[in-house]
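TA notes, week 10

Several of you asked for a full example with nothing omitted. So below is the full record: structure tokens for the whole chain, then the designed sequence directly under it. When grading your own attempts, check the secondary structure regions first.
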């Protein structure tokens, strides 16, 4: 899902950069005000974990492969704004150090995988927690949010490619969404296991809003 340079038209990647930059500015201010000193190390550890986890690929049908995006994990532990910053930092390092995704398209990659991948998480967990037992609701909600985040990000990626004239939306959207619907299952399993493990062993590391109905963003 990391879009390389040359795949997006300027009319697509320039606005994407504007949205990404605005998101970074807003989320940076909210994160600095809302998170205490105790959560800052958690941000670093979460970023390191997601960065390492994204290096591991798992096979998908048709000879393709996928990897963890981590937006749901970051948002469940830190809230959507801090989670967005964490995933953005991971994407920037991957782009600049490992050439994973292009520089011009970095804004679009941030929008797809960081912004969309984290903002959809809290409402889903909140709804799930309201209809299921607290711990089970958080785990199920985080898993569902992980799947939704992958599928939604793949759709926006397909839309950007279509708007850039790479392929008709009727072709690229089903292909992208279809493959990433399968990848999203792996994301959901990993996220659910990770969040469930933390709730059993270190529930203090899970965002208070995810378990008590209030949140910090």
């Amino acid at each position: 899902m990391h879009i390389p340079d040359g795949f997006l038209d300027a009319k697509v990647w320039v606005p994407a950069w504007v949205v990404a930059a605005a998101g970074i500015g807003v989320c940076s201010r909210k994160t600095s005000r809302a998170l205490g000193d105790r959560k800052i190390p958690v941000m670093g550890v979460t970023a390191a974990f997601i960065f390492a986890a994204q290096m591991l690929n798992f096979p998908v049908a048709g000879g393709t492969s996928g990897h963890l995006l981590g937006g749901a994990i970051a948002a469940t532990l830190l809230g959507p704004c801090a989670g967005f910053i964490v995933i953005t930092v991971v994407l920037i390092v991957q782009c600049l150090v490992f050439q994973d995704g292009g520089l011009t398209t970095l804004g679009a990659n941030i929008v797809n995988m960081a912004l969309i991948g984290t903002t959809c998480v809290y409402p889903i967990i909140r709804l799930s927690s309201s209809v299921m037992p607290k711990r089970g609701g958080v785990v199920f909600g985080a898993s569902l949010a992980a799947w939704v985040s992958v599928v939604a990000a793949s759709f926006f990626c397909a839309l950007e490619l279509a708007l850039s004239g790479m392929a008709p939306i009727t072709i690229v959207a089903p292909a992208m969404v279809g493959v990433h619907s399968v990848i999203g299952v792996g994301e959901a399993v990993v996220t659910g296991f990770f969040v469930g493990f933390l709730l059993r062993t270190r529930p203090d590391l899970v965002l208070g809003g995810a378990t008590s109905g209030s949140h910090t963003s």
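The chain has one domain: 10-212. Use that as a sanity check on your answer.
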